[in-house]
Amino acid sequence: MTTAPSGAVPVLLDLRAHRRVPTSAQGYIDLWQRLEPALTTVDPRRGPRVSLDLGAEGEVTVLFLSPATAPVPLDAATPFAVRGILEPPQVRYACDTCRGEGVTTYAPFTCAGCGSDERPGRVCDAHAVFLEGGLRASCARHVPVCPCGRTAHAWCAGPRCRSGRAWCPQHLVPRTADTALDYCLDCHAERFPACERPGCTATGHVRCEHRMPGDTKGCGQRMCAEHAMLWQIYGSRSRGLALCGHHHRGLRASDPATLVALMLAGTAARSQARRSARSPSQARRAAFLPRLGIVRHIFINTCNQVLDMSTVDSLFVRLQRELSRRGASNDRRDLTERALHLLDQHAASRREDVQRFRDSHEEGRRHLDRLRTLLRQSGKQQLADAVDFSDYRPRSNILFVKVPKELQGRFKGTRGAVVKELEARLGITIKLERE
Ligand SMILES: [Zn+2]
Ligand SMILES: [Zn+2]
Ligand SMILES: [Zn+2]
Ligand SMILES: [Zn+2]
Ligand SMILES: [Zn+2]
Ligand SMILES: [Zn+2]
Fold first, then answer.
1. What is the CATH number of domain 363-432?
2. pTM of the predicted protein model
3. Most exposed residue of 44, 107, 320, 355, measured as fewest CB within 10 angstroms of its CB?
4. How far from the centroid of its chain's Cα atoms is residue 211's Cα?
5. 3-state secondary structure of 3
6. Which ligand is nearest to the CA of 125?
7. Helix 309-326 crosses helix 292-302 at what angle (to 10 degrees)?
8. Residue-range domain boundaries for the chain
9. Rounded distance, CA 393 to CA 360, Å?
10. Which ligand is nearest to the CA of 153?
11. Are 394 and 366 spatial neighbours (Cβ–Cβ below 8 Å)?
12. Per-residue pLDDT tens digits for 175-215
């Protein structure tokens, strides 16, 4: 190649079909020296374009920019001026696998195994390998490996792996109709826990909510919706606390103070979960302490104890005092603070309930006195002595009474005739408190 003296023959080098495009000035000089002897044998006037075959390296096309003014014939002394060079388009992201085979191919995907830390390797459409459950590609040599060392088959979509760990078929749970995704064994057990009932194949989506104040977590035993036992402490319209079989059976033998503690801790846990609700069902779940009237009936139904309202109230007050004395620990899972907050909120309604209970109590007592009088008048002295007051609901006009089991038949009469007669004469509804 010569610098362009006046009269030099101007040419353009088209290297787009050349496989070994020079990367340096010396490379171009070497290339030109290989081209020039062949070039001086052609006649530019027969066509401006001359292709020179370089064998395995492809070909170079020389374009005479001004064929009419070129000297005839060209010879070794003819000066040439290279006015421009057309290079093959640069593939910025070339497939590393293809490059190994001497081919340059555009590679839209990255392979973390190829390349360096700063710049990941690339892989083309044809060489990219994708595992199930993920859009991360790799080349065939760098397919992710299961922790056991075998080639991985799929990314785990579970809560622990979050599609960031790949596993072999032996360490993935086979898919079922329920699981459209792949899960490793641990994630599957967490995502689809077994129901505690032996033989039940349903997923245990429900956790046992049994816990005591001061516990950092609840029982957590898993049950399917059908086998979860609900302790209805929030009234009929809200879903009660879910309990495992063991803890549900334990309620009956628990004393009222323990039951109040369970209600409080269970409700505090729900209230906490609502604040950081991860699912709409958590956010909707009831998280308030039941009113005293309900608590009183919970005792009657659960552990068969009939307490008056101030006694029920005192259980809450005692628990509140105990918790404030103990104070919250630094553990974030400690619910003491939440529990105290719930008790604070509950206090006003408790005062109201105790007062209303006292008022209705007096009214109820008067109904009971009249009931006893009627029984005595009809010669049922033993019943009159035995019947006792339990509760009175002024709004629904229901008097709850306690009658010893062995006298209940006589109190009700044949097909309830005695009670019906008493109800008619007193103008109230009479109910026997469940024993
Ligand atoms: Zn490739
Ligand atoms: Zn690779
Ligand atoms: Zn997993
Ligand atoms: Zn494996
Ligand atoms: Zn079940
Ligand atoms: Zn449990």
1. 3.30.300
2. 0.59
3. 355
4. 23
5. coil
6. 1
7. 100
8. 9-86, 96-191, 363-432
9. 7
10. 4
11. no
12. 877 678 899 999 998 888 999 999 998 999 999 999 999 88
